[in-house]
Amino acid sequence: MRIQSSGISLLLSLPALFSGLGLAADAFKCDQIKAADHTFDLSGLKGAHEVSYTSENQTDNYVVSTTYVMNICDVLHSAANRDGEKCGTDKNICGFPKTHAKDNHGNETFAYPVADLVGEGEKAPLATPLKEIDDKKEGLRLKMFGGEYRAHVEGETKPAAAIIDFQCDPDRSGLEGIVSTEDVLENGDANEKEKEKDIARRAEDKSEKPDPSLQIVSFGPDKDNTYILKLDWKTRYACYDYKGGNSGNTDPSKHWGFFTWMIIILFLAIAAYLIFGSWLNYNRYGARGWDLLPHGDTLRDVPYIFQDWFRRVVNTVQGGGSRGGYSAV
């Protein structure tokens, strides 16, 4: 019965294997963001970048300067630490508000996570083409969850999220006017290769732009009391005709998906046939070894059949040059 139990174990383990492969394939990758019928590649925007916003409260006589640090391709690592405040190195967007009292007394700083890219279910990142929101716009809307905002005055914690509209602008790389922070790995060593790539990307764009490519639109509570950070990011990587992107008609995953499933189904069918046939031969005939396999005699004869076929092919090729018919007397 050993054949039977091992075969069942194999079949039971296959769904878990394919399920694991599916989870790995669904993981967020900034160079393969699928939105409807298009795949966007935003890897050119990798790295930790920051953007700031200042608001003045006339009643309480203080000014709040908030700096948002973000990395849409990786977690922030040490960039999540600023001025002694920490928001979590496993986050992708962090906010660092700093309160400046007009009388130079009572200046305070705190930090809060805005969003990450590791959510599941309803909290998974959402990618939507901008044309579905506004048919006059081309690009991608990315909504990220997983943040927590603590109102500094009230001290109450609220859920936070971010909505980034990547707008198509063929003349912008997306790095114009953006301050980048040095992304340091958790082991304390600077990622020199990433820094060199970032410098090279910036060197490609020599033009001067009047305004930054990344801008803050708003930050505040939504209808469900979730604090939403809205950003506009103009970049060529959000254009449909950008060479790094793939349209739905040329997406290789669609073609490979059919053949992958065909191979999986074929493998399962062969495995089921061999397992059932071996179980039947064992229980009905008490077979052992090679006799367990269905059509075992045919499988044993395969090498000899191939050898005979190969010999015939060789004889046919070698005999093709001789002249047939009768010889002259």
Automatic annotation (TrEMBL):
Q: Where in the cell is it found?
A: Cytoplasmic vesicle membrane; Golgi apparatus membrane; Mitochondrion membrane; Preautophagosomal structure membrane
Family per similarity comment: Belongs to the ATG27 family.
Signal peptide coordinates: 1-24
This one is known as Autophagy-related protein 27
Just give the chief location class. membrane
- Spans traversing the lipid bilayer: 256-276
- Tell me the membrane topology, using the record's own terms: Single-pass type I membrane protein; Single-pass membrane protein
> Which parts of the sequence belong to the MRH domain?
28-241
Q: Name one GO cellular component term.
A: Golgi membrane
What segment(s) does the record annotate as region Disordered?
A: 180-214
Q: Which organism is it from?
A: Penicillium angulare
Q: Which GO terms describe its biological process?
A: autophagy; protein transport
